[in-house]
Write a structure and sequence with these properties.
Length: 149
């Protein structure tokens, strides 16, 4: 079940984003998939952060705020947190307007985020939830190291 959710979210992200290339041509399904596979290493833009669109930046900021608020709660419901974060990533995906290399680099960090959010939603105990949350926090930290508004 978890794998299906991740695949559906990944496909929604890949096909939901504007994938117009520099020449104004729309990429084919195969080109999108190859592009995603070609950029497995998150890297800077010639030493600078990539520019993110406001919706993506704001969405990740909100995800980070949700996590920080969650960490202060006494009763940890990792499944509920996962559901809240999934709604936020849906917003990011629906409002994605990034194109080209910045968009491809976003995939490198956002796809693993989707996986960890799925893990949170399905965590069977606090140990699993804590592990997924720690990984997700690292991915969000990476996002802020490589992207800016």
């Amino acid at each position: 079940m978890k794998v299906k959710i991740v695949i559906i979210l990944l496909l929604a992200f890949v096909f939901g984003c504007n994938t117009e290339n520099k020449k104004g041509q729309t990429k084919t399904k195969e080109t999108k998939e190859i592009s995603l596979l070609d950029t497995l290493q998150l890297r800077l833009n010639h030493g600078n952060k990539w520019l993110a669109n406001p919706e993506t930046q704001g969405g990740v900021v909100k995800m980070n705020a949700m996590i920080e608020a969650f960490k202060t709660e006494t009763n940890k419901d990792y499944n509920a947190l996962g559901k809240k974060l999934a709604k936020q990533t849906s917003y990011i995906i629906k409002n994605c307007s990034m194109v080209g290399e910045p968009h491809d680099q976003l995939h490198v960090v956002l796809v693993p985020m989707l996986d960890e959010i799925s893990n949170l939603k399905e965590a069977k105990n606090n140990t699993e939830g804590e592990a997924s949350l720690a990984k997700l926090e690292g991915l969000i930290k990476d996002y802020f190291l490589y992207f800016k508004l």
